[in-house]
Design a protein that fits this description.
The structure is a single chain. The chain is α+β, with helices and mostly antiparallel strands and about 450 residues long. It is about 30% helix and about 20% strand. Strands 1, 2, 9, 10, 11, 12, 19 and 20 form an eight-stranded mixed beta sheet that branches. Strands 13, 15, 16, 17 and 18 form a five-stranded antiparallel beta sheet that branches. A four-stranded mixed beta sheet has the order 6-7-5-14. A hairpin with a 4-residue loop joins β19 and β20. α1 runs parallel beside α5 and α1 crosses α8. The longest helix has 20 residues. The protein is globular, with a radius of gyration of 22 Å. About 50% of the residues are buried.
Length: about 450
């Protein structure tokens, strides 16, 4: 019998489990996937949003602003890379320039007073490699970039270190709500008995919500395709270059990454398939056109990777947060691209709603909470290969050491496949995409887990 079962080990569910683990509670974190952060959380623009452009008064406006402050403070304490780049929103036409004062006013209404109008000369001074035709701009100094891979893993690792149970590979099949407990059943594996349930199932939050007897929203995935340019392109850009949003989309941005690359995207296509994470010719062609328009010199740079992520869009413009005290059930649904920034605030909101559902909690003392430390993956702070006595570089594109791969495969929640190794170390994510190091990475992972290299290569 657990006190709380958290369904979904993306960045939001893992944040909820982490915060619950700071209480004297028994917590279980489950996910249909074999790893933490293996869904929407691993494929996004990795922006730490200020919330300057959120709809004033909306639920997500308040949670993004609160989450920004929480994650900004938390990240350095555990080794999650944050790079303070700031952003500039660029108007390329007079019509776009006329929209900027309203965007500044919206930012101020949302409590972000640092947003300010600048002229074309100031935009050009900040980003000298921009294409021609800049009319005006708006600076957002606090809009930074963050490591999106380490964040959910850090949350889950801290939760587990503080007593939470991790159950991967558990796709929810149904609920049996009783007066004192709920039985959660799965397509495979033993059922779980719990007093309270939190639904943070991302793309499948509507499915889980319906299984729990709820209704009111349907997740229709919004696919966002992105292009990652080689590290040699990093010198073309100082901070994030944002477009002027329209009534239907925030548009395509060009941004640096904490890993030293330049990223262009995302597209925004509503689709019906929650597993359609493949890139499309039309999407990539559109992004290439945007890249050449915004930062022309990118046309001469190499592409390292293309990928697509699915956002949990619904028919509503806001998050879908629901709780049912009679079922001791909380739903965090419809969490879109701002979920990374808002995750820690959403965890606070989940706890507040759990209390309204009847959960009583006793917080642990500070010295009872076990701290964790992630391996830095960002380029701003030193990385393991730069430390004396390192065990030697295996992935030369991304400068990943042997020990990093072994740790990724053994520290819970441990990587169970090459994608998990990549998100914990950056191995095989570089220019050669594993062509030079894949065999050795598999060998190290196999030795660390007492398996075979073939099981990693094909698993």
């Amino acid at each position: 019998m657990f006190d709380v079962c958290v369904i979904g080990a993306g960045v939001v569910g893992s944040a909820v489990a982490r915060l619950l683990s700071h209480q004297h509670l028994s917590v279980v974190l489950v996910d249909a996937a074999p790893d933490v952060g293996a869904g929407t959380s691993k494929a996004n623009t990795a922006i730490l949003h200020t919330g300057f452009d959120a709809t004033p008064g909306s639920v997500d406006a308040g949670l993004v602003a609160r989450g920004y402050e929480l994650l900004r403070r938390y990240a350095p304490t555990v080794g999650i890379a944050v790079e303070e780049t700031g952003a500039v929103l660029v108007a390329w036409t007079d019509e776009q320039a006329e929209a900027l004062p309203a965007l500044v006013a919206k930012a101020h209404t949302n409590g972000y007073d640092a947003a300010a109008l600048v002229d074309a000369g100031e935009v050009r001074a900040r980003e000298p490699h921009l294409g021609g035709g800049v009319v005006a701009g708006m600076v957002v100094p606090g809009e930074h970039i963050i490591d999106p891979w380490s964040t959910p893993i850090a949350f889950a690792r801290e939760a587990i270190a503080n007593g939470a149970t991790w159950r991967p590979g558990c796709r929810v099949a149904g609920f049996e709500f009783g007066d004192a407990k709920t039985v959660v059943t799965f397509e495979r594996g033993d059922p779980i008995e719990t007093r309270f349930v939190v639904n943070a199932a991302g793309l499948f939050s509507d499915v889980v919500h319906e299984l729990a007897g709820g209704s009111g929203f349907t997740v229709r995935p919004r696919r966002g395709e992105l292009i990652v340019f080689d590290k040699l392109a990093r010198g073309l850009l100082h901070g994030t270059v944002l477009p002027v949003p329209t009534s239907t989309t925030k548009g395509v941005l060009v941004a640096p990454t904490v890993f030293g690359n330049v990223m262009v995207g995302p597209t925004a296509d509503d689709i019906g398939d929650k597993a359609a994470t493949g890139s499309t010719r039309a999407g990539i062609d559109a992004l290439v056109a945007h890249a050449r328009r915004i930062l022309p010199a990118l046309a001469d740079e190499e592409v390292t990777a293309v990928y697509a992520g699915l956002r949990a869009a619904t028919e509503h413009s806001d998050y879908q947060l629901v709780h049912h005290p009679d079922r001791r059930y909380v739903c965090l649904g419809g969490i879109r691209s701002t979920g990374l920034t808002a995750s820690m605030a959403l965890a606070e909101e989940a706890l507040r709603r759990l209390v309204e559902c009847g959960l009583t909690m006793s917080p642990k003392e500070d010295d009872e909470i076990v701290p964790i430390r992630m391996t830095n993956l960002g380029e701003v702070e030193p990385r393991p290969y730069q430390q004396p006595g390192n065990t030697g570089i295996v992935c030369h594109c991304e400068r990943v050491t042997r020990d990093e791969i072994a740790v990724a495969c053994t520290v819970v929640p441990a990587a169970t496949d090459l994608d998990g190794v990549r998100r914990r170390t950056r191995a095989i994510a570089g220019r050669c995409q594993g062509f030079a190091c894949l065999a050795e990475v598999c060998t190290i992972a196999a030795a660390a887990t007492s398996t075979t290299p073939e099981s990693w290569l094909h698993g």
